[in-house]
Amino acid sequence: MIALGLMSGTSADGVSTAVVDIDAKRKLRLLAHATVPYPKALRERVLAARDARTPELSALHADLGRFFARVAVKAAGRRKIGVIGSHGQTVWHAPGRHSLQIGEAAYIAEATGVTTVCDFRAADLAAGGQGAPLVPYLDWTLFGGTGIITLNVGGLANVTIPGRRLQDTIGFDTGPGNCLIDEAMRAAYGKPFDRDGRVAASGRVDDALLRRLRHPWLRKAPPKSTGRELWSRDFLLARAGRELRRRPADVVATLTAFTAQTVADALEGRGAQEVVVSGGGLLNPALMRELEARLWPAVPRPSTVYGLPALAKEPVAFALLAAERLRGVPTGVPSATGARRPALLGKIVS
Questions:
Q1: Are the C-beta atoms of 62 and 69 separated by less than 8 Å?
Q2: pLDDT tier at 12, thresholds 50, 70, 90
Q3: Nearest residue to 3 via CA among 221, 315, 273
Q4: Whole-structure pTM value
Q5: Is the Cβ–Cβ distance between 245 and 237 less than 8 Å?
Q6: What whole-number distance in Å separates Cα of residue 307 and Cα of residue 20?
Q7: 22, 66, 150, 337: which has the fewest Cβ within 10 Å?
């Protein structure tokens, strides 16, 4: 089956796509991938969605669905797509209680004529889970039994420790990925992100600020997940507002170090030897240097070594989850989410 995955992460940079050939034994072959940036006005609406009123949120739900549909049509091209998996755009995540992803999938199914699977978190939540993370099933498929640990650094950062068996696979969020760095760049420089880690490289890590950024959530034991609700601009300004006005480059450098340190702390004692890194953070050399220093003696390797471009992993995951949903295969991982049972993830729109 050829499946198309769509992913829009917490950084809200745009929609990443992956076209994947999936055989009956879950062997994956990436055929194509791309990332389509959001138009500026649409991105601003996404970033403001946490405070939106109901009419605004309803309109955004429809407008994102139409945008996802256009992206899906372009990504599919002339290929015969068997199923589309669309994660949607998370606008609120309260772990274990409720989670909202918007971007109406009916527009995708209508525009492409392809059965579309969406709303992947709900079944796990209903089964008593956190509703996240969702990628451990893919990580186990790719790396189960190898001893490799995976790290995806998007707006948030999450790790998977794939077991030999799916039920032994652990996955959880480690804390902020790029989200606080991006907030600092928007606040201090009017830019959406720290391109190539240049601002971080020009600043110095402030150890006192690094300690002040610590939050009790970081000490929680898995299963756990988090969102921009915690790692927000309000959090940033409360902990680093004065420094951001006076020494913005030092703040960006410190936030970059903070992301790397929270990952290293989360993996302490887990026997990490090789950590495969994906997501937008892989494109930030300053962050990769911090990860290399703080994860030692574990070695961070780019996911490209294993044929996964930086922004392709998560859409590949949703292509796989969608294909498995049509086959009736549960892809929830209770050892990662805390659910009572492996849930059959995703709602089908056709």
A1: no
A2: confident
A3: 315
A4: 0.96
A5: no
A6: 12
A7: 66
